[in-house]
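Project outcomes to date are best conveyed with an example. Our students and postdoctoral researchers have been running inverse folding experiments weekly, and each run begins with a structure described purely in tokens. The record below, which covers 418 residues, was selected by the lab manager from last quarter's runs and is presented without edits.
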């Protein structure tokens, strides 16, 4: 899939892994980094963007602005949007990746670059999404193109059956634990198999998002009928399926059998330090966080609400819930999930990145332990450098919020098999 995308956007009939190409991205996503890009553009005398209609701007990392400096950045970003003629300005609609996908701003087969390392999320709808730095984005904004080395592709076949409280997050954590966080270093991951076909778009977004934690340049699911239906419901027209060519060859193939797979967690302070949650059960937690571009979508609210129904958040625990977008929040309100969570003792914050990048809305103090649905748990990621973060699925997070410690969510699960 990645080769097909890079071939089209570089004007080539075909490309091969290892080649260098100069490609024209279809979508360029900027968050608050737009202000830094603008500073570099001004330094080299560039006043106009090559393709302002391809640029999407979302202010998500620091909203509501926690400092005067952040507020100044937001003011400047809004002025820049007007100055550059950027019409795709989403303001504070939520986390960038969630906003663009739920509004069908990304289509199958497109090349997407973003000033966020988890831009691999766009692979959930059959695009090739890659995170890039400020200097790379500055060049792409000015010229409309960027060079890439065509990555080899690792095929990940998802087979087997589901289980109670088993979620997409558990699958990608199991991959990281079994194969390491560099299993796809500067490679593309292509997910397939019957489990991938049955997976919701939300689940695919979780796995594509965490492709970055496996070292991947791109992390793609084929755009199938489910993808087409999702994007058409989101308002897109002329959407067609997109996948690899028949007989495509891969640099490596990995099979993950989900049958009997237990819920997993990544333990401090490394995304690859993965264990079944049963091995760390009993670890006391002070905060449970449901949020980030990895989770906090509607189905994640549904799972958390199922766990919390008829129960209360443990007195020791702060259960912080940050919706992935305003649309997600509204849908969760209408479905009754927000009422269930608040009645149980959860705290709902404004949509956005929140506590995930260490910005605000849920930071940890010295000695505190958090169980989080985020994608990273490095030292100081969510506050004090003397705190610890365990990463797990929304089911794991919600169960820990109730128990006050890490437990197997299957102990509290009464819903259907996921």
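After processing, the design step wrote out the following sequence:
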């Amino acid at each position: 899939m990645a080769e097909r995308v890079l071939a089209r956007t570089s004007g080539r009939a075909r490309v091969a892994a290892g080649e260098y190409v100069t490609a024209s991205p279809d979508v360029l996503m900027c968050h608050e980094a737009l202000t830094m890009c603008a500073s570099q553009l001004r330094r080299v005398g560039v006043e106009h963007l090559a393709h302002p209609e391809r640029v999407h701007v979302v202010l998500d990392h620091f909203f509501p602005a926690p400092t005067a400096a952040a507020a100044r950045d937001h003011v400047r970003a809004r002025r820049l949007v007007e100055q550059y003629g950027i019409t795709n300005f989403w303001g504070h609609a939520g986390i960038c990746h969630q906003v663009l996908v739920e509004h069908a701003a990304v289509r199958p087969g497109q090349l997407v670059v973003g000033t966020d390392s988890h831009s691999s999320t766009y692979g959930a709808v059959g695009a090739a999404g890659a995170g890039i730095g400020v200097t790379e984005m500055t060049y792409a904004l000015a010229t409309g193109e960027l060079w890439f080395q065509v990555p080899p592709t690792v095929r990940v076949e998802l087979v087997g059956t589901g289980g109670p409280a088993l979620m997409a997050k558990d699958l990608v954590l199991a991959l990281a634990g079994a194969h390491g966080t560099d299993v796809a270093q500067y490679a593309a991951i292509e997910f397939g198999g019957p489990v991938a076909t049955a997976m919701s778009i939300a689940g695919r977004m979780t796995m594509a998002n965490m492709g970055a934690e496996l070292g991947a340049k791109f992390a793609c699911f084929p755009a199938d009928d489910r993808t087409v239906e999702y994007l058409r419901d989101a308002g897109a027209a002329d959407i067609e399926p997109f996948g690899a060519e028949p007989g495509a060859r891969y640099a490596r193939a990995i099979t993950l059998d989900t049958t009997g797979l237990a819920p997993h967690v990544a333990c401090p302070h490394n995304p690859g330090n993965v264990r079944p949650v049963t091995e760390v059960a009993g670890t006391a937690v002070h905060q449970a966080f449901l949020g980030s571009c990895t989770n906090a979508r509607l189905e994640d609210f549904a799972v958390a609400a199922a766990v919390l129904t008829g129960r209360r958040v443990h007195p020791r625990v702060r259960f912080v819930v940050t919706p992935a977008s305003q649309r997600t929040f509204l849908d969760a309100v209408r479905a009754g999930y927000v009422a269930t969570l608040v009645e149980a003792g959860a705290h709902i914050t404004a949509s956005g990145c929140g506590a995930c990048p260490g910005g605000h809305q849920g930071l940890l103090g010295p000695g505190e332990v958090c169980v989080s649905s985020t994608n990273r748990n490095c030292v100081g990621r969510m506050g004090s450098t003397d705190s610890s973060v365990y990463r797990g699925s929304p089911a794991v997070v919600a169960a820990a919020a109730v128990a006050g410690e890490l437990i197997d969510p299957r102990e509290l699960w009464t819903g259907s098999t996921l």
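The chain has a mean pLDDT of 95. The longest strand covers residues 153-159. The training component of this project remains on track.
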